[in-house]
Amino acid sequence: MDKNNETTAPKPAGIPKKDAPEAFREMAEKGTTQAKETYDKIDAATTEAADLIKNSYSKAVKGMQDYNNKIIEFAHANTNAAFDFVQKLSGVKSPTAFVELWTEHARKQVETLAEQSKQLAALGRCCRKIQFFACRCGLSIEMHRQLLLKQS
Question: Residue 11: its pLDDT value, please?
Fold first, then answer.
């Protein structure tokens, strides 16, 4: 065979053989830096979203506690009003006094019920807004349950 006829692989142009490891190292470091920056951004966004959701659930739990406490408060007030009414009824001597007492109690209870309904509706709107926001964050019902259990 003739040496002139042998084909030799062409040498790549650009990076000299000695600088190749340095170039690869720089590319690897650049890739690592970009990956770290991306990870840090994702981590910050995830932490922010988790804090937002946690705060939403804290408010939801607080809202439900307030709602339940209001119901208990109203039940206590209504029970006391009923006992007071029965106590006053026991002292009634005439049908006219009975009708007057009954009418007065019914009027007071209707006013009380209207006010209690307004307060419960306001608390309920607050809780629904928080639930809506939590659902908009893409949480499943199971995740809602687990987060609420952790809060209590």
Answer: 54
Q: Where does residue 92 fall: left (phi above 0), alpha (psi -120 to 50 degrees), or beta otherwise?
A: beta
Question: Distance between CA 12 and CA 16 in Å, rounded?
Answer: 8
pLDDT averaged over consecutive 10-residue blocks of the chain (152 residues)?
53 57 83 88 80 74 85 94 94 93 95 93 75 57 57 52
| Cβ-contact 133, 56 below 8 angstroms | yes
Q: Give the per-residue pLDDT at 110.
A: 95
Half-sphere exposure for 60 (CA within 13 Å, toward CB): 22
What token pair was written down for 75? 């039940």
**Structure tokens, 30:** 């650049």
Alpha helices in 91-140 (DSSP H): 95-136
Residues 6+ positions from 56 with CB-CB distance below 8 Å: 130, 133, 134, 137
Residues 126, 130: Cα–Cα separation, whole Å: 6
Query: Which sequence spans correspond to the domains of the chain?
Result: 58-151
Separation CA 64–CA 43 (nearest Å):
31
- CA neighbor of 103 nearest in space, from 118, 116, 85, 87: 85
For residues 134 and 144, the answer to whether their CB atoms sit within 8 Å is yes
